[in-house]
Amino acid sequence: METPAPTFSPATAADAPALADLINRAYRSEASQAGWTTEGHLLDGPRVDEETLRTMLAAPAAVLLKAELSGQLAGCVYLENQGKYLYLSMLAVAPEAQAHGLGRQLLGAAEAHARQLGCASIQMSVLELRPELLAWYERQGYRRTGASEPFPATTRFGRPRQPLTLLALEKAIANG
């Protein structure tokens, strides 16, 4: 059976409860443990809460694109315009929708958004201890910049079980 094509649209504050559920299931739930996208072995607690999502959605230079399959929320990606580049974070695909190319399609939608804005590149931060995820992004054309930073000392994104480092990745976007 062929997977239906996703539809992409900007999320609104009304989507926050469903998005928080999707993101937390993709990153830290028991269901995510079966897939390769989990980070539950590195961090405790939720990846995001509804209040944080509402704040992110209210940012004037940001959009959270949601992906729906047959009318059901299946994925999302947060994009923030930083002028010369678009910052990408919180790429999430529901555990039951993984391994069918939706993550790549979300990256494609992010790249189209970056082109629309005239951004020269997309940048993101990925946990250094996620070699399989780093390799996946590299297969999608992202490159390590050499920059790194410690995981934030806040519990806003979860509680690290050990010291963690974020690596910067970047992909140039052709405009034209």
From TrEMBL:
* Entry annotated with the keyword Acyltransferase: yes
- Which keywords fit this entry according to its UniProt record? Acyltransferase, Transferase
| Source domain of life | Bacteria
InterPro entries from the UniProt entry: Acyl_CoA_acyltransferase, Bact_Acetyltransf, GNAT_dom
The segment(s) forming the N-acetyltransferase domain are: 6-162
Which protein, by its recorded name, is this?
GNAT family N-acetyltransferase
User: Which source organism does the UniProt entry give?
Assistant: Hymenobacter ginsengisoli
